[in-house]
Amino acid sequence: MPCIIQDNIAQLILLPLLLKTEIMKKVLFVLLNLLTITVMAQSKGRFEIYDLDNFKLHVYYTNDALGDASYIVEGHDALVTMEQPLFKDNVAEFDTYLAGLGKPVEKRITDYHVGGTAHYEVVMPKGMPEFTKGAVYGGMMRNFAQLFGDALTEMPTGNAEEVAFGTTKTYAGVPFEFRRGASTDFPGASILIGKNVYYTHWTPAKAHVSHLQVSSLDAIDAEISEAKNALKSGAKLFIGGHGGAAKADAVQFKIDYLNTMKKLLAENKTADTFVEAMKKAYPKLAGAEGLEELAKALYK
């Protein structure tokens, strides 16, 4: 089932911040990603369950305005949440599902996305607690509050335990290896979970990327590098704060696609010819309607 974030919504949310910093162009991501496993229907979002050796991964597609996804790692005796939802109706749905699993929550990981963790202590990559209080992330959250108002949950008040990059922590009997994420993104972590699941900010998808994810040549290179790291990890499933879950073929597609983009960027001197070249290279690829905005960002 496709998850689509409209560019006009994204621009409305981010416009004041986009004028200040390049990094804000990565806050939202146009994602169209087809999944072919059994789905548990929910009143707003939906859950998918993956059985991965010694743990289960519950993927929650929020279907919210930002295309966010949240996760539950279910160990034998306890649970770990990741990137809990931001909108009240999703928080209620997620919490009800979480309680229904009948196990205690050992840890709550907030990586790239602050969400509805309430008063509970969270785990964050080193430096992210301070970053979320700064002008970039704090300004983004203020824009969300203005746009979505009472639909947003209360901001978390619990303490944050910081985890250094290069550290492996074991929660609910499952190892979580905290690695540095893409260099042009927020200073969050890519996390290898139990050797089988690789978490990054953006789920790889067989679709054109948005200018909100890639807005410069440096960002293209950074995303290629991170995608290669993901493949080298040996993981079987690749997840993200925007999108949900994908397999290795989507990661390889992303690498090939971005390398093609670099080549066409070098060969075409104008934004218009770049757009036409991308359409010719990928005539049936989803997300072509966003190529003009992508070109504007890359050719500015």
Features:
23% strand, alpha+beta, 300 residues, six-stranded mixed sheet
Verbal overview:
The structure is a single chain. This protein is of the alpha+beta class and 300 residues long. It is 33% helix and 23% strand. It is built from eight helices and 14 strands. The chain has helices at residues 7-18, 88-100, 128-132, 135-148, 217-232, 248-267, 271-281, 291-298, and strands at residues 40-41, 46-52, 55-61, 69-74, 79-82, 105-109, 122-125, 160-163, 167-171, 174-180, 189-193, 197-202, 237-242, 245-246. The strands form three sheets. A six-stranded mixed β-sheet has the order 1-2-3-4-5-6, with no helix packed on it. α1 crosses α4 and α7 crosses α8 (291-298). The protein is globular and about 55 Å long. It starts with 6 loop residues before the first helix and ends with a helix. Mean pLDDT is 88; it is low at 1-42.
Overall SS class: alpha+beta
Which bin fits the share of residues in helices? 25-40%
Q: How would you spell out the order of helices and strands?
A: HEEEEEHEEHHEEEEEHEEHHH
- As residue ranges, the low-confidence spans are 1-42
Distance between the termini: 34 Å
Largest sheet: 6 strands, mixed
Q: What layout of secondary structure does this protein have?
A:
Elements: H1 7-18, E1 40-41, E2 46-52, E3 55-61, E4 69-74, E5 79-82, H2 88-100, E6 105-109, E7 122-125, H3 128-132, H4 135-148, E8 160-163, E9 167-171, E10 174-180, E11 189-193, E12 197-202, H5 217-232, E13 237-242, E14 245-246, H6 248-267, H7 271-281, H8 291-298
Parallel strand pairs: 5-6, 7-8, 12-13
Antiparallel strand pairs: 1-2, 2-3, 3-4, 4-5, 9-10, 10-11, 11-12, 13-14
